[in-house]
Amino acid sequence: MKRLVFLGPPGAGKGTQANKLSERYGLLQISTGDILREAVQQATPLGVQAQRYISSGTLVPDEIVIGLIGERLKKTSDQSNAGYILDGFPRTVPQAEALDKMLQNERVSLDKVLSFSLGETELIRRLSGRRSCPSCHRIYHTEFNPPRKAGVCDRCQVALVMREDDKPETVRERFKVYHRQTEPLLDYYRKKGLLIEVNAGGSMEEVMKRVLQTIGDLPVVSKV
Ligand code: AP5
To answer: Of 2, 37, 138, 174, which one is the catalytic site residue?
Structure first.
């Protein structure tokens, strides 16, 4: 069972790679961003709390996200034998410390932490063309990964949406927040010997090859 963390700036392709690994190898994708956006969409108490942070490009408070992940991790062994990818969590040192405690309590540990890196110009190109399915969370790009029918999810036939936090001014804030609050995690995991830096440039297939080289072979469950 693999336990992986995907780190990286907004738009680096963490979600895209996690989507593909999930579809092909049955790894469970646990995306805090998706969980929070779904809560906002459904106007749950969590969503009402999270909305203002997401739309301003800042981080939702640690205690909220840590509680959310704690609940999800308890259910993971029932949902996938292949393991899971934490996509977008942890994002601060206190979140990473809380994750360590949760894993210690279960007597398990992380296998690897992949840090996806890419220059800002390319990150902005990726974010400005991103479209996603509000139902299944599959990620598209108007130029690099268009759906078969423009604006419609291949899988759900639902209209694709542009994320509210992909507006240029919010993207700038998200980059700042990444450098200030999430980059320190690279050292945190480097010191633990878990960090692997992945060049996120090039096509999705090229990045996928690099990812697979770092995490090792996995049994295929679906040839998507
Ligand atoms: P979240 O949803 O996690 O956003 P993010 O980390 O900013 O990352 P993105 O989803 O923007 O980018 P990605 O790296 O997944 O790129 P993608 O694969 O989509 O978080 C959103 C907000 O939620 C946060 O700002 C915060 O408020 C809150 N939040 C979430 N987690 C939290 C936490 N732990 N603590 C506190 N708050 C939290 O790719 C981008 C585009 O590029 C797509 O269109 C894709 O098709 C395209 N693309 C991908 N790879 C390639 C490639 N190789 N070539 C060409 N195009 C590509």
So the answer is: 174
Q: In which element (H, E) is residue 176 found?
A: helix 168-177
Cross-strand pairs, 33? none
Sign, CA torsion 66/38/174/201: positive
Q: Is the CB of 99 under 6 A from ligand 1?
A: no
Q: Is 40 in the pocket of ligand 1 (CB under 6 A)?
A: no
Q: Whole-prediction pTM value?
A: 0.95
- The active-site residue, picked from 3, 20, 126, 163, is 163
pLDDT of residue 223: 52
Phi-psi domain of 151 (left: phi exceeds 0; alpha: psi -120 through 50; beta: other): left
Cβ atoms of 3 and 108 within 8 Å: the answer is yes
| 9 C-beta closer than 6 A to ligand 1 | no
Q: Ligand 1 center to residue 93 CA distance, Å?
A: 19
What's the whole-number mean pLDDT along residues 196-213?
Answer: 97
The CATH code belonging to domain 2-215 is 3.40.50.300
pLDDT at 224 over 70: no
Residue 182 has phi, psi (to 5 degrees) of -100, -35
CA 151-154-156 angle, 5° bins: 95
